[in-house]
Structures are given as structure tokens and as C-alpha cells.
Design brief:
Length: 275
Amino acid sequence: MSAFGVEVIVVEMLEHILPMEDPEIAEQLAKSFKKQGISIHASTRASGMKKTGSTLELTLEPISGGKSTVTADALLVVVGRRPNTENLGLEKVGIKTEKGYVNVGDYYQTNVPSIYAVGDIVRSPALAHVASKEAEIAVEHIAGRRTETRIDPDLIPAAVYTEPQVASFGVDEARAKERGLKFETASFPYRGAGKSVAVEHPDGMVKLVVAPESSEILGAQIVGANATELIHEILLAKKAELLPEDIATMIHAHPTLSEAVMEAHRAAEGWAIHV
């Protein structure tokens, strides 16, 4: 909306926008937003709203204290999603649910062997590409063909279609700490790849989380132009059990944004060049 000339105000009750993403990536996105004129109120609660003619007034309460108001023409409230499984008659056929979600086992098979469930009604990321892959697994199993039992959650790419874009998979620093993993991080700024400057999209970074002893790729986060496309090279490396050195030493065409991916892996190896 901001790109179309609309004044945009973002209010987020948690510490930073995109609270499910790496804080450093979210901070980079917030900086880009502010350059575009977007106003961000993080750690702020929207406590009330009232309509005044054709506009509405929103009351904001920062966690640090105090109150303020903003006026707008429209309000978009984003509070998450929940499964819509009521009144489907699931209980009549004996399908077990928990808080609206359908319980599934391997191949997304419910407790009723002839019935499978995929997508937003099962406990997996509510993403279209996840639902599609789950359906493929279920149908392959129904057809008696060999297939994986379920999706590995660490191999699911997440995509946020902001401007600039955000993409990620696997663990970030916070999740690595939660799992008690030993890890190191490496990053490379978009600006170090000449293509980003040439196309006037220099804001962004590629960030890796790797295991220090084995150099295994544990996760990656990208913020910047075409991030949702670039993430797949790193995801393929993870799935194929390649190491950062494999991408670091592979020739990447110049000028391309993917050079930032290459340099991030070089950084993980301790020899990034264009910084």
C-alpha cells in the first residue's frame, strides 16, 4: 500500500514487526519500511477505536507507558487464524480433533484409516505450499506409492511478500537456543552484491545459522529483493546435506543477487570477499 502512495502505520504489540522472524532480519525490514515513510509502533498495544465521520481514531498504548492516537481511513486487524472444522460432522465418523485441529499421523492419515487431512486444519504451518505437499504425500500413500511419511519442518521455506521480501527456513538464533544447539551465524549485506545497487534495491542481508563443528546448515534468513526466490538455493543445499563451502566455492553469475548468497556462505567459512 505504501508503494501506491498510501500513508501506512504499523502497530505491533510485540518487540518488533514479524515477531516470528529473526530480530536482525525484522530490524532490517523495519529500516527499509521507515525509508519508505511507513510509521512503525512496536511494543505498542492498540487499546481502542472510535469512528469519527469517514475516519477512525485508534488509541495506542506503548508498553513503556502513556497514550497517543492516530487517525486513519481504514484499519486492517491481523490476529492470526484458526481451523474452520466446526459443523463438518467429523465427530459422526469418529475423527479426533484438538482445539479444532484434526489429529493426523504418518502420511497425514487420521485415526479413521480411510480419511486423510492436510492444510490449515492440521498442526503444520498454514502455508499454501505446505498444504500442497501434504496433499501429494497423502495421495501418493493412498495410491500405494512410496513417499516420505511427512514434511520435515526444518525444510519448509517461509515467505513474506513485503517490500523488500523476507524468506527463511530451519532455525534462527532464537530457535537454535531453544533447542540447545551449538551454532554460529554469518551474514552478508545485499549492498555487497553489485546487482542490488544497479537495480536500486541495496537494502537487505543474507544470514546463515550453521553448526560450528560439522558446518551443517541449520537455517537461513534473507531480507531483500527477491528473497523468496533466493532462499531455495540454500534450502536445496540443506536438503542435499551440502556444506557452506559447496556454495561458497561454486561460481555464481555476475551481476546477480545470488552472489550475496555465495558471499554469505564464504563468510560462514571465514573468507567473504566483497565486504
